[in-house]
Amino acid sequence: MKRTNRIVNIMIAAMTLFIVVSVFFAIRGFSIIRKTTTASGQDFLLQSTEYVGKVIQLSMKNRHQALNYLAIDGNLKNSDDPATYLKSSASSLNTFFDSLNNETDSLFYIDPEGTPLYAFHWDAKKKEVLIVDPDTIRPFIRHDLSLKQLFDKPTAQNGDSYFINKKAYVNFYQEIRTASGTVDGYLILPLNLEAFYKNFLQDFELDYKGYPMIKDRSMTVVMHPVAQQVGLDIINGREKLYPDFDYSDLKRLEKYQLNHNSGKLTYKSYWWDEDTPTEVLKISAFEWIDVGLAHWVVAINADYNERNDDIINFVIVLSFLLVLLLLLIIVCSLFIHNFRKKETIEAENRQLIEKQKQQKMQHQLELELYQRNKMETVGLLTTSIVHDMNNFLTPIIGNTQLLLEEHGDDPILKADLEEILHSAQKGKQLSSNVLRFSKPQKSVQEWIDISAAIGVATHLIGEIIPKKVQLSLSIQENLGTTKLEETDLQNLIYNLITNAYQATKENSNKQQKIQVTVSPASKELTVLLKKSSHRATPIDTFVTLEISDNGPGIPEELQEKIFEPFFTTKSADEGTGLGLFAVTSIVAKYEWHLSLVSEEGRGTSFFITFPVHSSK
């Protein structure tokens, strides 16, 4: 008896140690995954920053090109009367201003010494160009400190950014020469950078909270989604508005950006687009660009925690489950200790022998699983966790069944124990389904009613997806029977519906819809499949399963790649690229027919055609 007690105590201690070690490695794994996710997010932001920088440079170049075309078309000269010029070039001026989409409402002409001669104003409401007093545009000349460089470097596209009443501007220059080649004057176009930002960068979308911003070489905000931030030094200016905030990390950011042409880093700051900014941890990427005489840093920030929420929640839930299992082990050990005295030594020995056999079998399955694991990246972590969960569920199921036998006369306790047993068995079944993909098992195929099997599988999967998704079924009954493993059919439908659900998550202005249809295959497809069939027993009847969604559709150039393993267009926390690969593997296993129809903006439909024996 003492020996038995000692063995049981050792086993309980070992399981407790195993749980503690599992929690440690779960936390360690979380740290590694978080670092990897952060690095991936920063790389994405850096690519986005490079893209935004190119958009700004190209857009600014287009505006200067438009000014150049206007100068060539209008042929404005120092000696011209502005009224005469306006009369002859009204159409060109109207087209010019209208194309800039409210980014400017002024255009003026200065002589080679910088004295304004003519000024035009664009009335956006009336769609009309008016002549105004040249003195009204003097602030655009006085605040542009780079205007002097225009005379030294007349080929400059535009000057540096400047501010008037907390609004950022940049002046575009176009040199006007006489027929003899001497400089007659300059066309000056002041561009409102706030309007430019709204037209090109305001709607720049990330998968998480964040936005682009532009600063000049003095670290003053030039373009920002919050108008109040424009014209502020990122530290001194903000300290005046929010003196109680912590700016130590922003100082580090400023120093780093001033000493590097591009980069990425993590720092603490605030979301300035909130009514009451709260401190957050951000990931950021930046790049310096030259636009004419302006030298700007383009930066994109994103919420660090928002990118890692799923990982954090996963680790918290996993740790909670492990701790819960630890508590269950302790409770079960106490329960066993109290009732063990009533059992015979022979029963104890049989129970221990049975447990040891189960552990050896589980251990053998684990070795085979690791040896045959095809998922080199996510597969190792996933199968390890599933296998460990399976180990935890085995004693729970066994002990719960024992408790049900001993307390069958207590209806309240019996109901609770049955609920525990049902949940554990569901968890064990889920674990087994995951293991099937990475470990070969004996195939057990049965003849099943295809309509009923698809209906059951769709109903089970429908319980998983959110209620806001409209899942519609149109299943014709009594279409026939086919021989397969029902779990394969469930996995196929699960992956296709999951894929459809993830596609419809991008819908912003319409409800997410998924349609499952089961009907006889078309005559054309039936004829084609009969000709191409290599089956020993000819099949005359085919049934088609169609799963459609109203998502954004799949681009034509990607339709052949989506079935490749590990190919995915989703983010790291949404998919691994194995779902549709699993579908093609199951289709190939049974020699079924797979096709898809997708139209961008309208949705995607997958078609699986099965050979069946008609029930008629």
UniProtKB/TrEMBL annotation:
Q: Which residues form a coiled coil?
A: 342-373
Swiss-Prot/TrEMBL keywords: ATP-binding, Coiled coil, Kinase, Membrane, Nucleotide-binding, Phosphoprotein, Transferase, Transmembrane, Transmembrane helix, Two-component regulatory system
Annotated transmembrane regions:
7-27, 311-336
Quick check: keyword Glycosyltransferase in the entry?
Answer: no
Entry's EC annotation:
2.7.13.3
The molecular function GO annotations come to:
ATP binding; phosphorelay sensor kinase activity
The Histidine kinase domain, residue ranges: 384-614
Q: Which domain of life is it from?
A: Bacteria
PROSITE patterns per UniProt: HIS_KIN (PS50109)
Q: Does the keyword Protease apply?
A: no
Sorted alphabetically, which InterPro entries does this protein's record hold? HATPase_C_sf, HATPase_dom, His_kinase_dom, HisK_dim/P_dom, HisK_dim/P_sf, Sig_transdc_His_kin-like_C
- Broad enzyme group: transferase
Under the heading SUPFAM superfamilies, the entry gives: ATPase domain of HSP90 chaperone/DNA topoisomerase II/histidine kinase, Homodimeric domain of signal transducing histidine kinase
> What catalytic reaction does the record list?
ATP + protein L-histidine = ADP + protein N-phospho-L-histidine
Among PANTHER family, the record links this protein to: C4-DICARBOXYLATE TRANSPORT SENSOR PROTEIN DCTB (PTHR43065:SF46), SENSOR HISTIDINE KINASE (PTHR43065)
Q: What is this protein called?
A: histidine kinase
Q: Which organism is it from?
A: Enterococcus caccae ATCC BAA-1240
Organism phylogeny: Bacteria, Bacillati, Bacillota, Bacilli, Lactobacillales
